[in-house]
Amino acid sequence: MPMRSPERMGIPLRPTKGKDMGKGGKIMAVTAARREAGHAAEALRIADRVAGILRSPDALAPLADDPGDVLSFADGFSGISLLFAVRAAEGRESRTVAHAHLQRAAAAVSRVRSRNAGLYLETAGLAFALDAAASVGGGYEKALATVDQALIEVVEERCRDIDENPLGPFHRYDVISGLTGTGRHLLGRAPEHLPTLERVLSTLVALTRSLRYHGETVPALWATHPPNLRSENPYSMRKYGHLNTGLSHGIAGPLALLSLAHARGVAVPGQERAVRTLVALLERLAHEDEFGVHWPNAVSLDEWAGAPRERGRTRPSWCYGAPGVARALQLAGEAFGEPGWTALATESVGSFLRVPMEHWHIDHWSLCHGWSGLLHLLRFFRDSAEADRVHHATEDIARRLVTGLADPDALRLSTFRETAAPRHGWTTPGFLTGATGLALALHAYARGEPSVAWDAALLVA
């Protein structure tokens, strides 16, 4: 059903005041002292500069050639609002700035008939952003109730589809477009939407069971398509699909959500068994080289059946490889009291940190697959057995970012109109691959624990 207008959805002209609450109802205290980090001051200056550019929704030319640029949480106004929710929580910005972006997002969503269940798309992304804004002073109850109700209908539909057709594309269950990402929003809203959250968890649990597929026994999480359209994908992968290991699109995503839910006291039948199955899959699929353990992004049916796997290391990032997969394993180990899992997670982080940085093949600063995502995820391993390597890598990455972005012209933000085909060297403004995510990661590096749990959208918290 089409969404109602922002005012009818309950978004007031000015947000109401209330207690500062974090996602999931926990009070999130703003860090009192700045991080003692070598590049904190420069990182904050860049984050402030990005915020200044993004502050006005009008300046972002919202009449996009691709409506998805405005609608989606990944690229649009709802994701951008997270930066200003964080700044409002720390007294660096008025709440009305985040509110202005939320109004634009709600207006765009109200004009479409969305059947998408994914967090990084329209409805769930708006719901997550509204909840984040509500954590800074309250409000938005009516808007959240309306958006959540529309979302719940789509989630139930998605769960029924998976019940009837267990094998299919990964977008049905992944973090970006599927049940895992939306489940993280519902976990933050529990106990209000507990039945729907439990339905999501039960569906993910069911996807860990084994099925027969083209003569092999595979997990129901098997994706029946290749991971991308690249011609270099093995024939078996193009014909029979793959098992995806990544946090964004693969089995690490459900592992993270099931573990986060368990840690918060939300459990369904078979949940622990499902987590153990997923960890066992990652253990089975792990490779070792001279630097240590790592994972392929995807496994073909031939490789699953035992054919040699000759592909080398992949780029370390949030979306694929360590540290994304490592953080999911770490969450599982912490939630279920399994130090061996956290040790494997730490080992994989130390492994890629032993690889010379110039061989990481990172060519962007984004959250998804770039330096800022890596910077943020390393924070979860600061107290691990690899603490020294993590500290040095964190400071090296921060130095690369602040040095590369010190020139004001280094971040030439395009408008939404230009994001469909941005000019060479121009920057998109959004959360997942744009300037908002960069600013949030730099801000967290400089200030410490995020005052608003924006990184819950990454399934790392």
From TrEMBL:
Enumerate the residues binding Zn(2+). C319, C368, H369
Ranges for region Disordered: 1-23
Name the InterPro entries on file: LanC (IPR033889), LANC-like (IPR007822)
Q: Name one GO biological process term.
A: peptide modification
Instruction: Establish whether keyword Ligase is in the entry.
Output: no
Gene Ontology molecular function terms on file: metal ion binding
Record's keyword terms, sorted: Metal-binding, Zinc
Q: Which SMART domains match?
A: LANC_like (SM01260)
What protein is this chain from?
Answer: Lanthionine synthetase
Q: Species name for this entry? A: Streptomyces radicis
